[in-house]
Design goal:
The protein is of the alpha/beta class and 718 residues long. It is built from 26 helices and 16 strands. Helix 3 runs parallel beside helix 5. The strands form three sheets. Strands 8-9-11-12-13-14-15-16 form an eight-stranded mixed beta barrel. The chain has a five-stranded mixed beta sheet with strand order 2-3-1-6-7, with helices on both faces. The chain has a two-stranded antiparallel ribbon with strand order 4-5. It comes from Cohnella xylanilytica. InterPro entries: Biofilm_reg_signaling, EAL_dom, EAL_sf, GGDEF_dom, MASE3, Nucleotide_cyclase, Rev_trsase/Diguanyl_cyclase. Keywords: Membrane, Transmembrane, Transmembrane helix. Pfam families: EAL, GGDEF, MASE3.
Length: 718
């Protein structure tokens, strides 16, 4: 039984909320204490002292209103918003009315003996009502940005409201203090309700986040509420209650000013500083792993090479690391999975440094470990070996374990580069030297530069080679060991370079996979092989099943089925004569692989797993996927006569395939003894140099109709 919690999780009280609660407590305590003392209502100041006190307090209030106008009206005009402009305009009106209220007191220029304090009191009531109603209205409507030109309309509104209030107060006939007395309680109640409603509106509209700016305005409303409450309990403008009401109003205006300051200046400033800090961090750190990036490494290396950091004896080393076959991981498992792999690699590298180095992500699947204060030249090599050993243990992604290998290039300073560019380039060169064998490290040597340039030149020549027709296909026969006849062929691509001659696939195929050139090259191989098979059939030769290798990048193409269907239609080859060879690496993403294989089978082609036994080798996948044939890797076949383990593996794969109704082809067959062993294991098909090397189509035609013993001689032209 599980307990399900409903509703939103409780949010901790923030600092601004604590201040708001404190403001309510202080205002309430002050009000209660002064009321409890009881004497303040009976204390009345002299006429002159009361006038001076009121003028001082109203002048301070007008100054705060003027500051509200300036801050909300003139500062950061491009970011002007409705709340800012409306609040500034509102309290410009309130400030003007408060000032007119002060100048209407006895002894002031606008005082009218006939009306007494009635006009001054009426102006104060209008000011309070306007402020309370205006705040409620402003906080009730959504905020949005406004154009600076809207200030003109706000200015007209300020003048109109102030003029209208003055005309009403000074134009009223027969106005006496006694005529206003019946409305005192109603006016007080209305203003108090408006203040309370404004505060409630702000709290409700901001109930999730409770930003500091909005809570500061609530604090202002608390003081204005207290001011009005204190005034409503007083007996006149000159008693202590009236003066306290004016005093309460000042912190109210101050907190309004502070709230606009937060909205206008402090919060945008904090956002700007946060954005700048984020930009600065992103400029020097990798977003995915959080590691320092290439830029920070470059700056650190320059400082160390100049001796600016005083790193001990000044000797340091770079371990330039690249994850082997990472592009295959990305292509087979998807980029999100690849990102998780990179995060785990970064974590393992951080654990490896043990406080004696720094780890950087250079981009893609390349990382660098900077080792400080090396004791001797051999320490970097020892650390490189230790780093390799760190990756012997599998990494965990989700609930599964995966084995990774890395290639590491090692450079030291001084010695392997005098400038930053030389050092980084030589580290990259050494790493590519290690990638030639994978799962190894290589110390930089000057002769590596030639190989690196050669590799770069080879990469640049790949596309030109396809356009120039430098690629060609050779075909290696597949024979039926039971019938002793030719039943198929595997198409193998070769690069006949105009200057370097025949370049082995082991040199250019990995380069094609890294650069993505494997996609156009793979499609050319498929089209050329299908066209050749169709031509042989058109010439009257016995139909053969032609095997074509699919790279993992081709397999990840979502329109692969459409491409193959178009090639078959273009060349006229029936689907049953095409066998697509895939590697076990496609099984890593089982759901995608199952869907794609089902779609391929729907075309009517055959599907084989190449190099079986060297990858995932999951029996579950063999049962789940629509596989027709397993090809036993040559590494198991080569020693079946001398290694009991290899013999047992080949025997087991053959028996398993028969039970699963799968055909079996043994690769790399080179002698009669291996043929005899495979026949004993009832292995259906075989290919290898014993029968024939891969040959061009002009020689392959001589193999049709030949016995097994005659194939080798026929292929060689004998």
């Amino acid at each position: 039984m599980s307990l399900i919690r409903t509703g939103e999780p409780e949010r901790p009280i923030n600092r601004a909320e604590v201040k708001t609660i404190g403001t309510v407590a202080v205002a309430g305590a002050t009000f209660v204490v002064l009321g409890w003392l009881g004497g303040h209502k009976s204390l009345r100041l002299s006429e002159h002292a009361g006038l001076v006190a009121h003028l001082s307090l109203e002048s301070a209030a007008f100054g705060l209103c003027l500051a509200l106008l300036v801050l909300g009206w003139m500062v950061f005009v491009p970011t002007l918003c409705r709340h800012r402009l409306s609040t500034a305009a509102l309290f410009a009106c309130v400030g003007i009315l408060d000032l007119m209220h002060a100048f209407s007191l006895p002894g002031m220029p606008l005082y009218d003996e006939a009306a007494g304090e009635a006009r001054s009191l009426l102006l104060q009531w209008i000011s309070q009502g306007l402020g309370a109603a205006g705040l409620l209205l402003i906080m009730s409507v959504p905020n949005r940005s406004v154009k600076p030109g809207a200030r003109r309309y706000a200015g007209v509104a300020i003048a109109a409201v102030a003029a209208g209030a003055a005309a009403f107060a000074f134009g009223a006939e027969g106005l006496k203090p006694q005529s206003l007395e019946p409305y005192r309680a109603v006016q007080s109640a209305v203003v108090l309700l408006l203040y309370a409603a404004a505060a409630a509106t702000i709290l409700y509209r901001n109930r999730k986040e409770r930003p500091q700016a909005m809570l500061t305005i609530v604090q202002a409303l608390v003081w204005l509420f207290a001011a009005k409450l204190e005034q409503s309990l007083g007996t006149g403008l000159s008693d202590t209650g009236g003066l306290l009401a004016e005093a309460y109003k000042l912190p109210g205006y101050y907190f309004l000013l502070k709230g606009i300051y937060f909205v206008l200046i402090e919060e945008p400033y904090k956002r700007q500083k946060k954005a700048e800090s984020r930009i600065r961090y992103m400029a020097y750190h990798d977003e995915l792993t959080g590691l320092p990036n290439r830029r920070l490494l470059s700056e650190k290396l320059v400082a160390m090479m100049r001796g600016g950091e005083g790193e001990g004896n000044g000797r340091f080393a770079l371990l330039w690391l690249d994850v082997d076959r990472f592009k295959t991981i990305n292509d087979s498992m998807g980029h999100s999975f690849g990102d998780r792999v990179l995060v785990e690699v970064a974590r393992r590298l951080q654990d490896f440094r043990s406080g004696r180095g720094d780890v950087f992500r250079m981009g893609g699947d390349e990382f660098t470990v900077l080792l400080h204060e090396l004791a001797d030249e051999s320490e970097a090599e020892r650390r490189a070996q230790q780093l390799l050993e760190r990756f012997e243990a599998p990494i965990r992604i989700g609930s599964s374990l995966y084995h990774l290998t890395v290639s590491i290039g090692v450079v030291q300073y001084p010695g392997d580069g005098e400038t930053l560019e030389q050092l980084l380039q030589n580290a990259d060169t050494a790493m590519y030297g290690a990638k030639e064998v994978r799962n190894s490290w290589r110390k930089y040597a000057p002769d590596m530069n030639g190989k690196a340039k050669e590799r770069l030149q080879l990469e640049n020549e790949l596309r030109l080679a396809l356009e120039a027709g430098q690629f060609k296909l050779e075909y290696q026969p597949l024979v039926d060991l039971e019938l002793g006849e030719l039943v198929g062929a595997e198409a193998l691509v070769r690069w006949n370079h105009p200057e370097r001659g025949l370049i082995p696939p082991s040199e250019f195929i990995p380069l094609c996979e890294e650069t993505g050139f494997i996609l156009p090259l793979g499609e050319w191989v498929l089209r050329t092989a299908c066209r050749q098979a169709a031509e042989w059939q058109a010439e009257g030769h016995r139909p053969l099943v032609l095997s074509v290798n699919l790279s993992i990048r081709q397999f990840r193409q979502h329109d692969l089925c459409e491409r193959i269907r178009d090639v078959l239609a273009e060349t006229g080859l029936a689907p049953r004569w095409l066998d697509l060879e895939i590697t076990e690496s496609i099984m890593a993403d089982a759901d995608y692989a199952a869907d794609m294989l089902e779609r391929l089978k729907g075309l009517g082609v055959h599907i084989s797993i190449d190099d079986f036994g060297t990858g995932y080798s999951s029996l579950h996948y063999l049962k789940r996927f629509p596989i027709d044939k397993l090809k036993i890797d040559r590494s198991f076949v080569s020693d079946v006569l001398h290694d009991r383990n290899d013999a047992a593996i080949v025997s087991g794969i053959s028996a398993m395939a028969r039970n699963l109704n799968l055909a079996v082809t043994a690769e790399g067959v080179e002698n009669e003894g291996q043929v005899a062993f495979l026949r004993e294991q009832r292995c259906k098909q075989a290919q290898g140099y014993y029968f024939s090397r891969p040959v061009g189509p002009e020689r392959f035609v001589h193999l049709f109709g030949k016995e097994l013993s005659e194939m080798s001689a026929a292929a060689s032209g004998g």
